[in-house]
Request: fold
Amino acid sequence: MATNADSDPVIASYDVYLTDSEISRYVLQYLDRPANQAYDDRHGQKPTALRLKPQTGLVEVDVPISTRVNYDVGKGLRYGDAIKKSRSAREGGAYGMAGGFCGGSAGGGGGGKVKMEDGDVEMGGMKKDGDTEETASLLRLQTLGGRIKTPEDGDPVYMLGAFRGKDLHLSPVSAVVQLHPQLHHLDALDEVPTKGRGKARKEGEEERAAENEARTIDVKIKAAGEDGEVAMVAGNLELLKKMQDEKWNAYEWVDAETGESWQTYEGCMINQEIETLPQLQSAVEGEDYLDQMSAPRIDPAHPELTGWAMKQNRKKQQEGSPAAE
Reply:
């Protein structure tokens, strides 16, 4: 008679190693992108830049837009021109959540600014009648954005696995970031009419024009309500202000198939000297581990006892059972 072990034999076993947990590793998820169409050089859409605000957890990635298929050139020129004028007027600007939801805001003395990268809005190539090199701009980049979730107790710990022969190397993931298309081009388009009117005003109306400018968030809450609601609103406003003030850290994007990328992979995902690694020691007992992984256990005879108390009660019963016999 065949046993379970015979019907489902072990076909391989691996030694497990943990890599350096001090290295930051982020998993970027593109929710609207098929897995077989990666953002890389092979598919002609290698990201041009990655930006990170480490304190508030904001992440942005710039990816090229294909202008040859399913692309409206008229709207591309309109949006590209809006971004060019908006960012040029402010010497760079952050939109959406990164700017505290103040369009193109450069509040905090430039803390929230993003300088325009070369090629963000490419000039020339496709112009309408009457356009010049200064006015014709084609939108060629799309910005994807997301936010790193602050870890909480009970959150799962994700690991990246890399096999090398009979060894499995596990690397802890710092965060999983879901990236969505950002509508920065629409924010820039909303700014253009305001700026055009501001330039046409007389000197005596400069103060009124300045009132329409986006500025650092400074809102005082005076509305009546429960203390919890007021505190929540105040906390959200404070977070938006921090997002607006924090500076971006810019990083160069290295394609996955380059030699430099493979060298980084070897150094960050594979332990090079496994002989010198210390042996892992379990910090919890097997039953304690099951308690932490499982739903709270309830004794029908003593519903008031759950978890640790239930285990202690059972332990006392087991210790007293020999004496009772």
